[in-house]
């Protein structure tokens, strides 16, 4: 099996397996006052400290959630509600159309049910938001006082384009606006420092960095006001309720610590492997089109993602044919009832919708090897020929 | 794999026969409903989940192919325009001809597959010289050879029907034995793209409700209706015309004329048809004679009628002289020709001649 879908989820890091396994043998609710509870609480808090350290944050910034989607929902809805409650004029939300569906669908929901109006900040052909474009979007119409929040992902999950987060934060803060960033794909692959970034809120998740599925965190500046989504015990700063998943949190912290420890070396290795993949794919299929930024530097692209369009080939057909040979990848775009839609990211970048259906994403991770790339490149030309003859239905 | 029991068992049997099998669910609706309503339909998200689950149990890859646009153009639009023209189409035949054994088969062949396997109840008999024949299924209650009568030899050569030798009850038992959760799922009925089964309303929404006259065979107006397409030839109920001739005898729909929006009614004798002619002939194998005796079936579960058939190759017209009159035969229906259990081919009925008509006059469209 050749696994080239690490951006979907990546194998557990051995450190995470050890941490999770150790905690699964114990009993204890971190909110109980007795010895077992205190022991669990200690694990949670040590994990919080470790995660905060790996993200350049303070432990008090960390709000554990049930994953990236929950953290994105909490940030976007929570900031919107709190900001609008403080000033009813604040109903605009600024975001680019390349956001992950966890943010995108939340925005659509707020527009449909909560009176939000979404102002889409344009991206360039590489999928990048320019600070000047954000500034212009903020000033548009009724101006900054009508804005509830800004949200821009740190790095894109489909094409791998990295955003100029610090510059975007500076623009938002110049207008006194809170800004959230979904850093799910960036964390573990790029230096992500929450405090240095100046972000008001930031989403991370465990299973993209070798931690378990089902746990994530919202990093939240202590000044940020946020209306909760879940009501109950108020376990996490009264912002998030629900019994904390001690084993998963321990696994998350172990994976985060390992990812940051190994990051420089691993990012370099992955970037080299990705460059090999890009060069060999373009060599094997000359009319393939690399998506995203042609600059392959760490400030331009994620090290582990290579996304292509193969003209005339349905992405689904390519996926089926590669899968039949044990090569696993993704079309990169989300499904609706299992039916592939042309990627909203590519469409936002100005890729024609016909070509946007021809996409395939290869994403590398800790277990990826040169052999994986070779296996792919060997299989690809025949697969592309076949998919092309099946055409676009 | 529709998400039903038949395609699931067909896939499992194909795997056991040694084929490399990939499950494909067709997304045929642009806006699939989340859940089934009743037993109908095969296009909901729940059905695709059932299909995926069956594929998991069988242990085969599973994909959803989006053929909504093709299905809409080739089957749904065709269905509506056929009704608008006063004909009564069977969309299942159209789907087999244009979607399952054309769009799906072509894509599959291009991707390197060899055949399309479905859960239809029909048998393919392969002779030692390689020639393949399409035959009725062993289970007479489930036989679906009629809806496959539109397949030509090339399509048949790439078709697998693993259920043709089985009884439906055995297929259900087998699904249960194999741990397929769909074993108890009710059979689908009617037309899959009309989720609530209300064909009349479906057509009214697309073709409108224009009031028109109901006349008898002398042309006298005996009632009125709201949309001629809402009627089927042979229909008796729902005419609301009382007893127009005062003879106490029921009246049936004889003819539907969309141009004048007129529905013609008459007696059961007037309904009887002795000759049908059809266009768009499709042959399941080589046809060596231009005149032959065979059985003609004109509805999915209709009785086969012995007939003398003439095939005008140049005009592409098939004419069948029925040995005994048939009732409720409408243009647009498909006449499938059988030699015993073997399907010879089919044609779409374009005209009928009634027993009461003078030779040479025809109800044509």
Automatic annotation (TrEMBL), chain A:
Its EC number is 2.8.1.7. The keyword Methyltransferase does not apply. PANTHER family: CYSTEINE DESULFURASE, CYSTEINE DESULFURYLASE FAMILY MEMBER. Residues 2-376 form the Aminotransferase class V domain. It catalyses: (sulfur carrier)-H + L-cysteine = (sulfur carrier)-SH + L-alanine. This is cysteine desulfurase. It comes from Actinocrinis puniceicyclus. PROSITE patterns: AA_TRANSFER_CLASS_5. InterPro entries: Aminotrans_V_dom, Aminotrans_V_PyrdxlP_BS, Cysteine_dSase, PyrdxlP-dep_Trfase, PyrdxlP-dep_Trfase_major, PyrdxlP-dep_Trfase_small. The keyword Transferase applies. It comes from the Bacteria. Keywords: Iron, Iron-sulfur, Metal-binding, Pyridoxal phosphate, Transferase. Belongs to the class-V pyridoxal-phosphate-dependent aminotransferase family. NifS/IscS subfamily. It is an enzyme of class 2 (transferase). GO terms for molecular function: cysteine desulfurase activity; iron-sulfur cluster binding; metal ion binding.
